[in-house]
Write the structure tokens for this entry.
Amino acid sequence: MNTIFGVPITALLGQLVVGLVNGCFYAVLSLGLSIIFGMLGLVNFAHGAFYMVGAVLTWFALTQFGIGYWWCLLLVPMVLAALGAAVERGFLRWLYRVDPIYGLLLTFGLALIMEGVLRYRYGVGGLPYSIPDTFQGAFNLGFMYLPKYRAWAVLAALTVCIATWLVIEKTPLGAYLRAATENPTLVRAFGINVPAMITITFAVGVGLAGFAGVLAAPATQISPLMGSNLIIVVFAVVVIGGMSSILGSIVTGVGLGLIEGLTKVFYPQASSTVVFFIMAIVLLIRPAGLFGRER
Amino acid sequence: MRASPTVKYLGLAVLLAVGLAAPFGMYPVLLMNILCFALFASAFNLLLGYTGLLSFGHAAFFATAAYLTGHLIKVHNFGPGLGILSGTLAAAVLGFLIGSLVVRRQGIYFSMITLAMSQLMYFIFLEASFTGGEDGLQAIPRGKLFWLVNLENDRTLYYVVLAIFIFGIAMIWRTIHSPFGQVLKAIRENEARAISLGYDVNRYKVLAFVISAALAGLAGATKALVFTFVTLTDADWHTSGDVVLMTLLGGLGTVSGPVVGAFVIVALENELSDKVGSFVTVIIGAIFVICVLVFRRGIVGEVAALYRRVVGVREV
């Protein structure tokens, strides 16, 4: 038997792998969005733009300076984290006393600026970036071919997600972070530098977006528009999963990526809308989100 | 700011005179575009400025009405009046559906959900056959209003659009100054207290959402007639962002703010798009950042504050 409901199994598995890769990007981005929201109470609209800048920087580093993929995997997240820290120090900290709506609007403006500048410079066409030599080709699993780079992207993304979860749940730094999320004033009274932790949190969140950008560079079309389309889906993912649970956002992200992949096989017209439909259904049944708690 | 009634009516009369004379000095299509966006932003401000809800998906209502109006007029030979009415009703229905869904979550989630729902509508318009997909709806005939007034003439159409605009603003003014509007402001200031006073807050929010969506739809339907085409740009999230900016720049929670903001932004985009192309996005983004950081009251808000300082009236 080579088909399920009239769909060839190889095509189905292929789309599932693509869905899994996308799901991992959703997971990394919604994770960053969640930790930023937890600490700053801010929805970072520029998250997709930071992801896009990460991918464009990877391309730029290779074409201008000959810096390869592996160095970028290390350096680009650091550059993005520094950029994030600068944005937090320069802009966001002025807005902690006003309505959280303004934080959203400010980051929206920043996203437009980043997207606009790169679009002006490079247009909207894709910038080519080839898969690093190590990951050329595919594994033959017997029942299907698994492209090596996709396997690596999934592995790397999940490792980073789980590492972030471990840092937040199991280390003293993570404990301070969780405490500062619950009650910043009290934590400050214990002599912990909360403003510095806020900066670090934002920087790490943005660094995660940059990391996702590097991972995406060889796997997708690098374009100044790649971030804004993604971030809206990630918003839906975050609404579905709820932002208060780290593991929840990882599971939701990967799960929705897989569902999207399945939709692409069975009903391709709906593949770009299925996540939004699921969001609407979740809002009807469980308004707080699958892993969320109302607050 | 409490001006005396005489001054107020005089001011309105001057504004009306300027509105009536404007097409003799400026290109009517640009003016109509400004009026459509001014109505759109004012409708949006009813939610953000008076109820405290930031919708990031108002392009959905704008585009739904525009597409439906265009389709009914072009394919089913509806007159312009009935076409605009149908489009507005469709936007109201969509507003009810999305509004009922979105009030289930509070705070910042509101913005994310409205954005996601409008992206859903965007993809539906992209896939559907009646919208013309990537090409959009082209060559919508303007026709004759009530079989009498020929709208093919730009100047004639301008006065119809002006009338629609005044009707829309009057609706918003009436809503804000009604007991219903007072409850909306109470929800904006302190939702928990409004609940404890016995108001069914969600019903008020949904109704505000429906009114806002319907008026945004009215603006979209009118714009379809003005430009005689509708494209996916109308449904794009950038359009939602543009009205947020117009409202913010002009002044949140003021009746004239969104109108001023729309005027500035539409004129700016019109002026710059030929010269700098896609760099306009960067300028729009920069205005956003500046507004949020140093200019949160907007143009009208700042002018009103200055007026109060000069005249020496206590802040209300």
User: Anything to note?
Assistant: The CA atoms of residues 56 and 241 of chain B lie 7 Å apart. Chain B has a mean pLDDT of 86.
